[in-house]
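Journal club side-thread
Mid-discussion, someone asked how the predicted structure for our own chain would compare to the paper's figures. Pasting it here so we can look after the session.
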Amino acid sequence: MPQQPVDRPPLTGKTVLVVGASSGIGADTARVLAADGAAVMLVARTAGPLEELAGELTSAGHQVAYRTGDITDASSVAAFVDATVDRFGRLDGAFNSAATTQAGRLDRVTDEDFDRIMAVNVKGTWLCLREEVRVMERQGAGSIVNVSSIGGLRGSSGMGAYQATKHAVIGLTRTAAHDFGPLGVRVNVIAPGPTESPMLDRTREAIPGGVEARIAATPLRKAGTGAEVGASVSFLLSDLAAHISGVVLPVDGGFLA
């Protein structure tokens, strides 16, 4: 692999799709990827936050576009993947960060809530993988990063359905690394610990004291930031990680150490 020039951002010349870019980790990661040289397509269900973020990044001199979409709908996913190629000419990387959360003891989760979280976190990730690889296979190269959680690597009470989905995302990623590696496509997954975001705020409300207990048990004694998570995503999408696939990377301040 050619050496990356030290003064050249690591994603220069690459197009990256960020799914779930309206807020939190997705939006902060989009900022990191743009700063690292990527042309970025932003996707989420609601246009307003995407328009605002796209304006911010465009004003800073970055190549950015946005498109609304629903990751639980196959035709919608295919449409925003195709829109990325139509706008930028190719798809080199994808960050599948769209997700929803849930709290409650397993036997008290409703059928509707279980189906909803599975549809978004598991089926949605699978649909994104399928459509992204459709394009990357034609190109003979690509890199995909999915989002799990430290809850996908261990259990705890109060978020069982959510944790089940995050275990599933790790399984999807590992299988995808085997399936798509021969096509030239790398697939990895990050497992964030508590990370400051609207989702973390909702968890604080649903499980009083739970987030603070995890932070107290974290060697670095703090929650992460979206930019810190974004830096790990940028690395995995870049050629610096050219021989890394099928990896689960905790971004958790040492919580799982």
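Post-session note: The CA atoms of residues 74 and 175 lie 20 Å apart.
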